[in-house]
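discrete fold record:
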Amino acid sequence: METNKQFKDKIAVITGGSRGIGRTIALDFARQGAHIAFNYLRHTEAANKTKNDIIGLGVECISFKAHLGDSSNISNFFKKVGGKFNKIDYLINNAASGINKPATELTTKHWDWTMDINAKAPWLCTKESIPYMQPGSCIVNLTSLGSKIVLPNYFAVGVSKASLEAVTRYLAVELAPLGISVNAVAGGYVKTDALNHFPNSKQMLESGSKNPAGKMVSEQDISDAVNFLCSKKANMIRGQTIVIDGGVSLLPPQPMP
């Protein structure tokens, strides 16, 4: 059965689209007919594979190596996107980074790195996208439960994600007159390469399935939520953070992993 082509000939920009959740989102949009642009930072081989896989689905794709902590890199990335497609229908701010240490062990360099990529970059990417967007365009920011729940070794990332959710609300109101919707998706523990960088990753994985749904949140679960927020059915959802966690945030507090 052919996949529904609800995004046929639309242009989707996914930051951090070469691996993990970003790759899953990019492939989902491509299967539904969208042409794709994504950036990556270090993993060129993975980026090339993702690009080839997307092109194999019968759509166009461009990839661009860009450090989103550098505003000039962001500007150059969107100039390339605009030069190729001359429009943007969907911006998915997925790229994220951070130093996984307690607050007392962080330096100002760690703080700036995390905030620049996780909070400032989505705002700058949005500013760069707006000239290419028409009414009906959508922006989705990827955040996490750590924006509201205190997690070990998550101070800088959690604060940056809380900032991103505030950015989401402000942009949703400011961009509404342009016909652009802005929302966010917050995932629970998702088994990705990023999780391996936490010193307590084993405990996080063990606790990830201890939710009412009884299983880990998958990359596909996050992508499905992003897809919905970019569909016409979500037109009246604005400035919201949709939580995809299997219900774990509804449970009484547990000892931190």
